[in-house]
Amino acid sequence: MTRPRSLVPVGELVGALVPPSAGGTSLVPISRAWASVVGPVIARESWPARIGADGTLHVHVTSSLWVSELTLLGADILGRLVAAVSVTGVSSVSFRVGTVPVAPVRREAPPPPVTSPAAIAAARELASVIADPALREAARRAIERAIVRSISTPDSG
């Protein structure tokens, strides 16, 4: 029987498969550290795209406004990046409008509505006139959900 190999994080596998940029420096550690280096606001608007043969880190941004803003902050960003990732081979940063990945929006699901005893009683009473037991039960559940939904949803008017 063959013993299973230990699991390896996907990030390590991708890092091993992605070849270094033309400048000889891998973009993977820079991409991983980008958000922590520049902060969440700038990270939403920018992304390190490639490293040129001359050692320039080319960063894509969402608009020309961000090109201007980040060009002024370029030396500071480069300094923080070098300190955070110990990057060698990157000598400057260039910003241009390009593709920036969109981070997924994480929204918490609202809690399920609580069914009150009054809603259950009202639904049972309204459905009681239906002769067929299966149809009566289906109607009772639908009425109950409608009552709960109408109570938990504020008026839009």
Structural features, described:
β1 (46-51) and β2 form a beta hairpin. The chain is elongated, with a radius of gyration of 28 Å. It has helices at residues 10-17, 28-38, 40-45, 64-85, 117-127, 133-152, and strands at residues 46-51, 56-61, 92-97. It has 157 residues and is mainly α. The chain folds into two domains: 19-97, 2-Layer Sandwich (GMP Synthetase, Chain A, domain 3); 117-150, no CATH class.
Question: Which descriptors would you attach to this protein?
Answer:
157 residues, 6 helices, 50% helix, single chain, mainly alpha
Reading off the top of the CATH hierarchy, the class of the largest domain is best stated as Alpha Beta
Q: What integer value in Å does the Rg equal?
A: 28 Å
CATH architecture of the largest domain: 2-Layer Sandwich
Shape: elongated
Structural class, from secondary structure content?
mainly alpha
Enter the CATH topology name of the largest domain. Answer: GMP Synthetase, Chain A, domain 3
Please outline the major beta sheet: 3 strands, mixed
**Number of distinct helices:** 6
Query: Would you identify the regions where 5 or more consecutive residues have pLDDT less than 50?
Result: none
In whole angstroms, the N-to-C terminal distance is: 69 Å
> How many E strands?
3
Task: Report mean pLDDT, rounded to a whole number.
Answer: 82
Strand content is 5-15%
Percent helix: 40-55%
The helix-strand sequence is HHHEEHEHH
